[in-house]
Automatic annotation (TrEMBL):
Gene3D superfamilies per record: Jelly Rolls, Winged helix-like DNA-binding domain superfamily/Winged helix DNA-binding domain
Pfam families named in the record: cNMP_binding (PF00027), HTH_Crp_2 (PF13545)
Keywords: DNA-binding, Transcription, Transcription regulation
Record protein name field: cAMP-binding domain of CRP or a regulatory subunit of cAMP-dependent protein kinases
InterPro entries, sorted: cNMP-bd_dom, cNMP-bd_dom_sf, Env_Response_Regulators, HTH_CRP, RmlC-like_jellyroll, WH-like_DNA-bd_sf, WH_DNA-bd_sf
Organism listed in the record: Novosphingobium panipatense
PROSITE patterns: CNMP_BINDING_3, HTH_CRP_2
Residues in HTH crp-type domain copies: 154-228
Limits of the Cyclic nucleotide-binding domain: 19-87
């Protein structure tokens, strides 16, 4: 069941976008007003929009985790990306065509639905917001390139390590980590579908990372025991995320 509410507080998005453009306080207030017009609360593991649907709005994640995926006729699934608070859910949002993939929640999610005309008007009225939205999409495309490289070239150990590094860095940039620990609601099935591996292979690889003293994954929380070494193992270079240098203490390896 879908619930509707007012988000009330300053959205993660209006806090996240200044990393991509120099938004003024007035810009942020206008952005928050637009985002608060229609806010939905969706339960875990619930489709936001399905392949073949024609969306009339754009979704912004205000809280929780979501995913983009493709599902084959026989039920096999490929996860294409993960979304956390502050993320715009879809690229090419102004193209008037049916969805060629699906979006679903992983945890309970609060999301803002912004009508496409409203988003166009916002981007035209405040060019800095338009610039920030374009740059968030550029980052999304860069992440997709990294995922393609992982599936094509990285080993299983490197793929999973890279995913752990990426999600931890994204969450830390959004202020959603506690020291070396972050919430991590992905199941081993989710990790398998995102990395092109079997669940058995994912389980064995995570156990190996534990034995190597790199991570601990327990009770839906991920702890980085040695982030620098994990980044080196994963061949992880965070430059593609375009994190605010003031928020990132780690340099590319």
């Amino acid at each position: 069941m879908t619930a509707y509410c007012s988000f009330g507080n300053r959205s993660h998005l209006s806090l996240h976008l200044p990393a991509f453009a120099n938004l003024t306080e007035a810009d942020r207030e206008i952005l928050d007003t637009v985002l608060n017009r229609r806010v939905r609360v969706l339960p875990p593991r619930h489709d936001i929009i399905r392949e073949g649907d024609r969306p009339g709005h754009v979704c912004f994640i205000l809280d929780g985790w979501a995913q983009r995926y493709k599902q084959l006729a026989d039920g096999r699934r490929q996860i294409l990306s993960f979304f956390v608070a502050g993320d715009l859910c879809d690229a090419n949002v102004f193209i008037p065509c049916a969805m060629d993939h699906s979006l679903s929640t992983i945890t309970q999610v609060q999301l803002a639905e912004v009508a496409k005309p409203d988003l166009r008007e916002l981007a035209e009225a405040i060019p800095r917001v338009g610039e920030a939205l374009r740059r968030t999409e550029q980052v999304a495309i860069a992440i997709q390139r990294e995922w393609t490289t992982s599936i094509g070239q990285r080993t299983a150990y490197e793929r999973i390590a890279h995913l752990f590094c990426e999600m931890f860095m994204r969450l830390r940039d959004g202020g959603a980590t506690q020291g070396d620990t972050c919430d991590f609601p992905l199941t081993q099935s989710d990790i398998a579908d995102a990395t092109g591996l079997t669940q058995v292979h994912v389980n064995r690889t995570i156990q190996e990372m534990r034995r190597d003293g790199l991570i601990e994954l327990r009770n839906r929380q991920l702890t980085m025991h040695d982030l620098d070494r994990l980044m080196a193992v994963a061949l992880f270079n965070p430059h593609y995320l375009h994190l605010d240098p003031a928020e990132s203490q780690h340099q590319p390896v």
